[in-house]
């Protein structure tokens, strides 16, 4: 996977919990226009793809994704996170990459 795609997918996952608030703030804008509507549609498509990917994964992968992106401690390295989850760092990388590859395919990238 290309580095730019990888980083973009990671940013989508970090923003996932805030998508609804972001959509609401766009819709409240008095200058709401066609560009904003396209942006909202794209955000909803991203949110749905993430939700479908989360539903299709097993609990081991979801533990990694939840720890990395939804309850992320910025002071923890990936090796430290692997230690906390009682898995090998290579397993953490594998599970993360498996999730991101599945998400990439669902988004059609």
Topology of helices and strands:
Elements: H1 3-15, H2 19-27, H3 34-56, H4 59-70, H5 78-85, H6 89-107
What does this structure look like?
The chain is mainly α and 109 residues long. It has 6 helices and no strands. It has helices at residues 3-15, 19-27, 34-56, 59-70, 78-85, 89-107. Helix 3 (34-56) crosses helix 6, helix 4 packs across helix 6 and helix 5 (78-85) packs across helix 6. The chain is elongated, with a radius of gyration of 16 Å. The N and C termini lie close together (10 Å).
In summary, what is this structure?
This protein is an all-alpha fold. Helix content is 77%, strand content 0%.
- SSE ordering: HHHHHH
SS summary, helix count: 6
Which class do the helix and strand fractions yield?
mainly alpha
Which residues sit in consecutive blocks of at least 5 with pLDDT less than 50?
none
Main sheet summary:
none
Spell out the key features of this protein:
mainly alpha, single chain, 6 helices, elongated, 0% strand, 109 residues
